[in-house]
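In practice, a research group might receive sequence data for several interacting partners and want a quick structural hypothesis before committing to experiments. The following worked case mirrors that situation: the sequences arrive first, and a predicted assembly follows.
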Amino acid sequence: MLSQNITQQVLHPNSHEDMCEQTSRNIVLPKPVRIKFEKMNVLKFISHLDVTRTMKTALTRAGIPVWYTEGFNPHPKMIFSLPLSIGTESVCEYLDIKITEPMSHEEIKTRLGAALTSDMAVTEVYSPKMKFQDIAYALYEVTPYEPYDLSVLDAEKVMVKKHSKKGEIEIDLKERIKSIEIKDGKIMIFGRADQLNYLNPEQVMALTGCTDHRIIRKEIYNERMQIFR
Amino acid sequence: MISYKILKKVSKPGRYIGGEYGQILKDKKDIKARWAFCFPDTYEIGMSNLGMRILYGSLNSYPDIWCERCYTPWEDMQKEMKENNIPLYALESGDPLDNFDFVAFTLQYELCYTNVLTMLDLAGIPLMSADRDESCPIIIGGGPCAYNAEPVADFFDVFSIGEGEEALPEVTRLYIEMKDAGTYTREAFLHEAAKLEGFYVPSLYTVTYNEDGSISEYTPKYDDIPTKIKKRIIEDMDKAFFPEKVVMPYIETVHDRIMLEVCRGCYRGCRFCQAGNLFRPVRRKSVEVLNQQAKTLYENCGYDEMSLTSLSISDYPYLEELCDTLLCWTEDKKVSMSLPSLRIDSFSKELMDRISSVRSSGLTFAPEAGTRRLRDVINKGVCEEDLMNAATIAFGGGKSLVKLYFMLGLPTETNEDLEGIATMAEHVLDAYYQNPDRKKGSKPPQVTISVASFIPKPFTAFQWEPQADLETLLEKQQYLGSCITNRKIKYNWHEAKVSRLEAVFARGDRRLSKAILEAHKQGMMFDSWDEYFNYEKWMEVFASVDIDPSFYANRRFGDDEVLPWDIIDIGVTKSFLLREKKAAYEERPTPNCVEKCSGCGANKLGGENSCCPKI
Ligand code: SF4
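A structural hypothesis for the assembly, expressed as tokens:
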């Protein structure tokens, strides 16, 4: 759908970026919009499904002209980036929607922001530049509240068990860690974050012997280490 | 606020975090009275309660009153709280309950009583009203079970009887005034509260008993408090407080939808139904007000589902008009609409078409009894033809699931009545196959029979009736099962043991407080949850405090006996209920209130936009 829309823009070079493009037959084409938001503090305890439900009602409260899927049971088309595990906070969650009527990015940001609590603040709204499939890495900031020992990660391989659809499998955590460094008493964990290889920072911390901590996802990147947009 | 370390360890931590969109926060320095409104069950259940949504909004509409929410923590969380010395707290401020001026409990069903004690205990508040001192909050109860709250009377300081949206702010005003004037003591306040209409202070009434265990009398301790507590009603529903905002839960709850309250009360007079009498007289909202409120709620919640609520929605005289008005915009906004509790005798093709225009998989009907005779006894004025008509329309409209609700163990019931239930279900199935309009290739039909046991409830024509004993109830369940031979008919029944315990508490008196206290001491809680309900343990508890549960559940109460709930005046008179009981045994139906007023007495309470004759 994204590429379709780009084609449309090429065909109608005059259309304003923040406006819905219209074809000559006057059919409004849904226009993709990316919403960057946070999931902070107590919201680390709510699931991805809860976020979805909350966003759905919030979009309605905010009066955003969201594009609905067709069919028997129409629902607003919403695609989220990289799910966040329960227990982790984030300042870089992304939601893609499409809008069916003109509304400026600024207005979407203000309206949606007012329909959510500050723990789920909307920080940016723009036209997507990359695809969710491009996401390759994520950076986490860990504040430890108890002693930890990173030396376990010095080994060549760090095998851990993981639940998967095929039952329990063993994976090498090291393959998924790009780097770990300590900055101002905080542990910055850089890990893989694509669909096949996803590093759960909580798992890393468990190995270091520290289970009381705060983890915030700070940024996500593509394969070329460009900040996701 | 509760530490994350603890929340990480418990199941469904989202229950305990608060912070939802729509929650009301206030600056403590502007506040003169704080309420902790407790729903004695889980967050998911409590958050779905319409009454609590209304009262939360109503109390918070006053700038000097702040009302917060609290629910029963699940057992794992209770354990963590105890181990870490965390007292039960309200979700908005995170402050412990004993910091509040009022701690309120809404009593929606009898089996929540042990949870009330669980919550008081977690809050570190003395369980018995008599043990509370000046530093303790006022513990106040309300909701349907407060109409006979005698079994929990010892744990509460005061009960609010009837509709609370005006009453609760009023009692709070009294509290604030007494505090400001320096005249406040618990005792003085409770005495003054007892003089307000609709407030029952159980400690101000002494109960004496006869030798046979029945009640001799209730004596007020002061001359200036009423001998009977009259329930409060909202006279004009169009002008009643309406919560424009709703707290939007993050986690999934039982009813994540707009609940539009269309009317209060019910025109029908089913003789087993307590709610029908408790909420008399019927008062309804106008279509314009409802449409406006629905829009406001939609804009403020963003839910894509709306259900119209009322005890008997199809009796709302302007239902067609209301549906038309609402559908005008809900279809466009993709909001689905549901109408619960449709009565089969008022079920029309037009209504059916409207419901099928939104999502709906099946239909439910509640004939309650299997034969015409028994339906006349209970005054459920529906006949089999009505059901067949409705089923035919439903099947023609593409539905294939029909759910039928019945009650078992009703007064005068015989095997023939039970057989009638099975026959009725068969006839519904036949209607499917005989229906020329049925959609070919659609799912095979399924009829589900769902059976509950009859519970004699206070303020009904059957309040004097004994509940069939457990053995008889089980036999009846089995017999009905043996009558159902068709595999397309599914048969569900409620656990009879649960119904028996409910019957004990429903008609209980103050002496039951000791059983509930003992049950709490033995760690009992969440009795309404299958995984917690333990009938045998309850029987042991009753035995240990020398209480015979059959005295309450299985005894025929005398017509002139003083009933534990006689202290409450719900408008509907005892003499009317006695007349109704007589009519039941004569198998004589009573017309509904629209056809003819039967003089139940509820009209003396007033009420706008109702069908009652004005006094
Ligand atoms: S007063 Fe008459 S019309 Fe009103 S509820 Fe009672 S019986 Fe019905």
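Before designing any experiment, note the following. The CA atoms of residues 106 and 142 of chain B lie 5 Å apart. The pocket of iron/sulfur cluster is lined by residues B 280-281, 593, 597-600, 602-603, 611-612 (CB under 6 Å).
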